[in-house]
């Protein structure tokens, strides 16, 4: 039997998990500082929720969902977080309790995509949603928050792309303009785009197929058909972004792959080429009709999600945080093992992270592991030391060693760690 992880689904061993946690913690900090509360929704939702929101004709709904039937109910393991959060918002009548709601979430999402670097079948998102604020100031602030989060992580060289789809009428108008423009060239388009011409023509603008590029480049722009309030909204967004000093490009071809958007759309692309297929680290936009479409009261909304794995890739070789294990306790000889375990426990109780080596190996071998673990201090607990009521403290960073009376040990360790911390 050769059991392996499901294709496109990754293990996070401790080094990777540490990077992931670093991203999640930076995210949490940014969001809580901006007044967002955490929401945790189930991994599994009714399939109809995703079909109704993300939409038929999208890759996610047509090809990528992990769906199954259990107890006669069609269920899907969530491909994204927005739909489930919207369902929870409506189900718990959150709109009745507050006019504006700000939520964030982190967690695993599932899409049966073709796996490659930066694109997986189980991946993780950190995301945020705002309900109840229709204005462009809200959009600008959210985009600025995303930029702040990336800067906090040390990803400063990412580029913000924004576009506006307009509201449902503008979108319908543009859809027709695009279909009229592309139909005479239909046979020259890629097979996927030919199919999308009928089902979801806006997605053609997102096509990577070589034969489509010529037509995409000279296609009419949605910004050309924006008018009235849609136009004013987009102008407002750009004004606030400028005031906030957020550099962005107006990407007239940005359409995004999910159907629920209207008006503001944005993506953040990592400048580094290390991301392969997934240079887009963040995607988001406004979806003012979703809450009403799902049976809630008409409530404007906007949100974003960032791919955790892609952020970790964008961090590249940036070092994960310093060793979490400053102290290594070495037991020398069988009778020293119990006392060493007690020292380890007492250190941890006092808040000092440490590991006890009770394997009964040579001091050399234990110190080798202490170094490999990044310890700054090794405490050698030997029979001779115990008899004298001391422990040998090896300061591995300062290359010093001293005997410390057992009663003084904690204070001594604390003092050295405090000194060694830059
Ligand atoms: P999305 O663009 O489908 O939007 O995904 C957001 C981000 O999740 C992407 O930019 C990417 O970093 C990451 N991502 C997506 N698919 C994969 C994959 N297969 N492997 C690795 N990373 C991936 C949404 O999901 C929307 N719910 C965002 C949103 C929130 N819009 C409004 N509110």
Question: Summarize this, please?
Answer:
With 422 residues, the protein is α+β, with helices and mostly antiparallel strands.
Helix coverage percent: 40-55%
What is the count of β-strands?
16
- How many domain modules? 2
CATH architecture identity of the largest domain:
2-Layer Sandwich
Order of strands in the sheet with most strands? 1-5-6-11-10-9-7-8
Q: Distance between the terminal alpha carbons, to the nearest Å?
A: 50 Å
What is the CATH superfamily of the largest domain? Bira Bifunctional Protein, Domain 2
Q: Which percent band covers the strand fraction?
A: 15-25%
Q: What is the CATH top level name of the largest domain? A: Alpha Beta
- Which small-molecule ligands are present, each listed once? histidyl-adenosine monophosphate
User: Helical stretch count?
Assistant: 17
- CATH topology description of the largest domain: BirA Bifunctional Protein, domain 2
Low-confidence stretches: none
Rg measurement, Å: 28 Å
